[in-house]
Amino acid sequence: MNEIQQFKQEVAQNIESLGKDKKNKEKSIEWLCQVSQYNYAYNFTWMGRPIIQAPQDLVALQEIIYEVQPDLIIETGIAHGGSLIFYASMLELIGKGEVLGLDIDIRNHNYEEIINHPMYKRITMIEGSSIDEKIAEKVKTFAKGKKKILVSLDSNHTHSHVLKELQLYADLVSVGSYCVVFDTLIEDIPKEFYDDREWEPNNNPKTAVWEFLKGNKNFKIDKSIDYKIQISAAPDGYLKRIH
């Protein structure tokens, strides 16, 4: 075994050990609850645009993007556009690929910032509900001919909405790539944190993932990512296509 192989083996052992440390996971959730009162995920930008993601998830995503080398990344939920810019910048670094963003309401001030950004050259946006069959058909048409596709779901976080998104878009994911479902963390956080939202424990992206996987054996949860990054808005949300 050479030094590179030895290092990779050590990392794999570290990750496995982290996965067995239940107390540490409890502390991670406790910490996330504590910082949520300060809108933790809202406090970061990517290349100048608010990204509204935990930094640890961004590290995991860049690893996935480099491994998969996607020709297309589809994201539902645009908000300020930071994630679109992030995905586009990763594709710029690997030298290929496009980003397609969907949102039911692309606000004018965000739209202007996105189209004037240097990474816009790799971005296309569609306004409309991600669970509208007509919008889904537009996405499928756009995706035709793309060999490697990654999907990121981060719009409405109710169970029914995310389950419908999974039913509409998961089949576009290429084997070996991922469908990343964000805000599965809602299931693990007390209800009072979501008093003003439609979603809550028992009605959120994680419950949608669990139901989706009951009837779809093409995907599995990549637990190694959860173990590795510990702090995440998407526990059980990194779905790898295996068939």
Question: What does this 3D model show about the protein?
Answer:
The chain has one domain (3-241): Vaccinia Virus protein VP39 (Rossmann fold, 3-Layer(aba) Sandwich), CATH 3.40.50.150. 44% of the residues lie in helices and 15% in strands. The strands form 2 sheets. Strands 5-4-3-6-7-9-8 form a 7-stranded mixed beta sheet, sandwiched between helices. Strands 1-2 form a two-stranded antiparallel sheet. The radius of gyration is 18 Å and the shape is globular. The protein has helices at residues 3-20, 22-36, 55-68, 82-94, 108-115, 133-143, 159-169, 205-214, 223-229, and strands at residues 45-46, 49-50, 72-76, 98-103, 123-127, 149-153, 178-181, 219-221, 238-241. The model has no long low-confidence stretch (mean pLDDT 96). It is of the alpha/beta class. The chain has 9 helices and 9 strands.
